Amino acid sequence: MKALHFIIVILLIAGCLQKDENQLSEVDIKNEIINAEKRFNEYLLQNGVASAFHHFAAPEAVILRGPNNLIKGPEAIMKFYSDPRYEVAKAYWKPDKVEISKDGTLASTWGKYEWISVDSLGNETKSEGIFHTVWKKMPDGKWKYIWD
């Protein structure tokens, strides 16, 4: 009888320690974020800045542009980037670092970017900098940015 109780206790403990089969590993989540960054960049190059920043924005997305200019929400972000100076702009970036929350629903990336704008005479201007993006996993499983 003691052996049966012991076996039941061991099985209960083992059941509590099992990982949910649907739960992704930290490496899997980091790869999802790297792929989201890659898709975001590819989408921007194919569809333009305004469309890309709108498409990948979570409903609560906020971007900081300039020292004190917060643009809140996908529609406001799209309006901001609909300015003609962004119509032919391009950007290239790749995260150097990806951090994820313990529960796997938030992630932060940073790295270098290159921004290329073209003036009305067709002259290109390149600028470089560091980006920081915060990503949130949506109920449908897609990752959208909440801060950029």
TrEMBL record:
PROSITE patterns the record matches: PROKAR_LIPOPROTEIN
Segments crossing the lipid bilayer: none
Gene3D superfamilies: 3.10.450.50
Limits of the DUF4440 domain: 33-144
Alphabetical list of Pfam families matching this protein: DUF4440
Protein name (database record): DUF4440 domain-containing protein
